[in-house]
TrEMBL record:
Function: Signal-recognition-particle (SRP) assembly has a crucial role in targeting secretory proteins to the rough endoplasmic reticulum (ER) membrane. SRP is required for the cotranslational protein translocation for ER import and preferentially recognizes strongly hydrophobic signal sequences. It is involved in targeting the nascent chain-ribosome (RNC) complex to the ER and is proposed to participate in the arrest of nascent chain elongation during membrane targeting. SRP54 binds to the signal sequence of presecretory protein when they emerge from the ribosomes.
Protein name per its UniProtKB record: Signal recognition particle 54 kDa protein
Superkingdom of the source species: Eukaryota
Locations listed in the record: Cytoplasm; Endoplasmic reticulum
Keyword line: Cytoplasm, Endoplasmic reticulum, GTP-binding, Hydrolase, Nucleotide-binding, Ribonucleoprotein, RNA-binding, Signal recognition particle
């Protein structure tokens, strides 16, 4: 089952359970069964699913004294928390590179896992955050490896180092890292060679390269399409390269993504990014909370904010307002304008609340973009007073809706949809303040 379907199924199960006027034990049982089935169909290990089910069951035990509203909130929160728990890695420190010093990051993984592509994606990620980044190709095994890295690096304007003549990868790695260190590069990414399968030779080479470049962080790149087998592969590599983090690639809608994530998490190694496509920008930072928020279509405001920051778009007061729990129609207008500039829309849409991701899946990128433009057009037809309001002005004076619909050449329904959209953002804004607390964003006021 693809991840979007998993999210939809879990969401539906939660909605069904919270829709009924009373939440009986049988409603809870049906919910648990549906969530478990959905997870298993997404290739999550059965033992993990049973554990989650048991914990959820204990948390959701129906008591006579329960207030129905609290019970519904409890269901939403418990499902969110347990799903996070399933893929969260605890008590492991995540490496954070520091500016003004050389941070060496070494990549390991099998051939074809997406290692070279991911090296470039990560280089770009750090470059956008103001680091001075260089890449070293220590893959002398595969013909064409250096050319591939060179091509990627050139496209992304990242300085690179490699050799067409030297066949010893350890030497190339050492020279490259030394050169970049001397030139005060802050992030030095070393791409090592892979093999088609795990071989003695490969592991030996990794150890040798590791000894000379002394990485601050070793990252294993794993192809998510192998599902639960990811855990065994990670374990085999761990014995020789002792990597501290994982990047799962090919998470773009593949059926087995859920299996790989949970398998890897259960091996207690943090996944720090996921690759979601072949392009340089298709790399998303990964935390359990963010991932589950997005999976359930609640929106990933943290990810969105991070993305916005790297693009240096004009935010006006929107983000400040957002963090303070406010959100006017004008803020919505400025956000939608920014979103259209961010591209690709498919990536952004999944981070937004209010079913925009769903709309995107149903009608496609072009139509979603057209709908966005109509929404912006609607807001362009509003007065300053209306724009700076929270939308209640339209409820008090419905004639305003008709005027705006006429002025923008749209319909009353479309204007109402804009107001609804603002409400959803506002709700998210209110819960943004609780992001670090236990409340899942967007769920608090459901
Ligand atoms: P390496 O042999 O491990 O260095 O793998 P490459 O970087 O050459 O990647 C192998 C193939 O996987 C290439 O066709 C990449 O474009 C593709 N690839 C890498 N990452 C992703 C990803 O996140 N999603 C998708 N769909 N393809 C990817």
């Amino acid at each position: 089952m693809v991840l979007a379907d998993l999210g939809r199924r879990i969401n539906n199960a939660v909605s069904e359970a919270t829709k009924s006027s009373t939440v009986t034990q049988s409603v809870v049982d049906t919910l648990l069964k549906e969530i478990s089935n959905a997870l298993m169909e997404s290739d999550v290990d059965i033992k993990l699913v049973l554990k989650l089910r048991k914990k959820l069951k204990a948390t959701l035990e129906v008591k006579e004294s329960d207030n129905i509203t609290n019970r519904k909130k409890l269901i939403q929160k418990a499902v969110f928390d347990e799903l996070c728990d399933l893929i969260d890695v605890k008590n492991v420190e995540i490496f954070k590179p520091r500016k003004k010093q050389s941070n060496v990051i070494m990549f390991v993984g099998l051939q074809g896992s997406g290692k070279t592509t991911t090296c470039t994606k990560l280089a770009v990620y750090y470059q956008r955050r103001g680091f001075k980044v260089g890449m070293v190709c220590a893959d002398t095994f595969r013909a064409g490896a250096f050319d591939q890295l060179k091509q990627n690096a050139t496209k992304a304007r990242i300085p690179y180092f490699g050799s067409y003549t030297e066949s010893d990868p350890v030497k190339v790695a050492q020279e490259g890292v030394e050169k970049f260190k001397k030139e005060k590069f802050e992030i030095i990414i070393v791409d090592t060679s892979g093999r088609h399968r795990q071989e003695e030779e490969l592991f030996k080479e990794m150890v040798e390269i590791g000894e000379v470049v002394k990485p601050n962080q070793t990252i294993m790149v794993l192809d998510a399409s192998i599902g639960q087998a990811a855990e065994a592969q990670a374990r085999a590599f761990k014995e020789s390269s002792n990597f501290g983090a994982i990047i799962l690639t090919k998470m773009d809608g593949h059926a087995k993504g859920g299996g790989a994530i949970s398998a890897v998490a259960s091996s207690n190694t943090p996944i720090i990014f996921i690759g979601t496509g072949e392009h340089i920008n298709d790399l998303e930072s990964f935390t359990a909370k963010q991932f589950i928020s997005k999976l359930l279509g609640i929106g990933d405001i943290q990810g969105l904010m991070e993305h916005v920051k790297t693009l240096n778009l004009d935010q006006g007061d929107s983000m400040k307002n957002f963090q303070e729990g406010k959100f006017t129609l004008k803020d919505l207008q400025s956000q939608m304008n920014n979103i259209l500039k961010m591209g690709p829309l498919s990536k952004i849409a999944q981070m937004l609340p209010g079913g925009i991701g769903e709309m995107m899946n149903q009608v496609g990128e072009e139509e979603t973009s057209n709908r966005f433009k109509r929404m912006i057009c609607i807001m362009d037809s509003m007065t300053k007073k209306e724009l700076e309001s929270d939308g209640s002005i339209f409820i008090d004076e419905p004639s305003r809706i008709i005027r705006v619909a006429r002025g923008s050449g749209t319909t009353v329904t479309e204007v109402e949809a804009v107001l609804l959209q603002r409400n959803m953002f506002a709700r998210m804004a209110q819960t943004t303040k609780n992001m670090q607390s236990n409340l899942p964003p967007g769920m608090a006021d459901k």
